[in-house]
Amino acid sequence: MQTVLHTSRFNLSLSPRINHQPFSSTAKIPCCEIPILPLSSSHSPISGVCRAGGQVAELFPVTCPGIVVREAGIQDCWEVAETHCSSFFPGYSFPLDLLLRFDRVIGMLFGFSAPKGCKRTCLVAVIGRSGGSFFSGSDDVGIGNLFVNKGYVAGVLTLDTVAKFLPRKGPLRKRRKGIAYISNVAVREELRGKGIAKRVVAKAEAKAKSWGCRAIALHCDLNNTGAVQLYVSRGFKSVKVPEGANWPKPKASADVRFNFMMKLL
């Protein structure tokens, strides 16, 4: 089945005059950024270029019971790092794979912040329990005062209003406001095809709306038909980049063909 992309010319000035539409749902996959972890803007990956595009191939998603999508907490650090690295850097072997995971954990621990006037969060899709209490005999592992939840984070997504990958506004190249950006959407390989990515993206849309954003955007690899169809089904439309324009986009391997997509909330 061939995917037909609907190309729209969004007014990227996105003034309040734009008519808001009712909205109808993250990693790598579509949106890929190497300093990758929503909660970590200050820690870039140890090396290499990520295999962008997203790991979402859910053309006919099956409902996955017991899924809760919420904001990530410190206890989720290791599972988020594991999900992210196994999706974006599947070819790395020991010890580099372990170093990448520690890099992501450190990024989350020290990256729960955003530039002044901006917001940033990491959303996780949790299977079974959502954590919170750490009692003896649980599946949580303690490392000093840090607890790590084992084996229940199924998907992750980063959402922010930093506008790093949005075209700048006007001759002074001001940062655009009111537009949330999705990146680093990843779902564990063994759990793909169950509608998890769609649930996480839907939560991101709701979160962006609660922040007062009027639109949400992302970059999607055109080679990843599953991700493309997921976003099209959620109401995202391709935005045509003006000829000669040099809009910012995530770092990725040479074979990635990024498509900038946006949805009005």
From TrEMBL:
GO terms for molecular function: acyltransferase activity, transferring groups other than amino-acyl groups. PROSITE patterns: GNAT. Residues 67-265 form the N-acetyltransferase domain. It holds the Pfam family Acetyltransf_1. InterPro entries: Acyl_CoA_acyltransferase, GNAT_dom. PANTHER family: ACYL-COA N-ACYLTRANSFERASES (NAT) SUPERFAMILY PROTEIN, GCN5-RELATED N-ACETYLTRANSFERASE 4, CHLOROPLASTIC. This is N-acetyltransferase domain-containing protein. It comes from Erythranthe guttata (Yellow monkey flower). The lineage of its organism: Eukaryota, Viridiplantae, Streptophyta, Embryophyta, Tracheophyta.
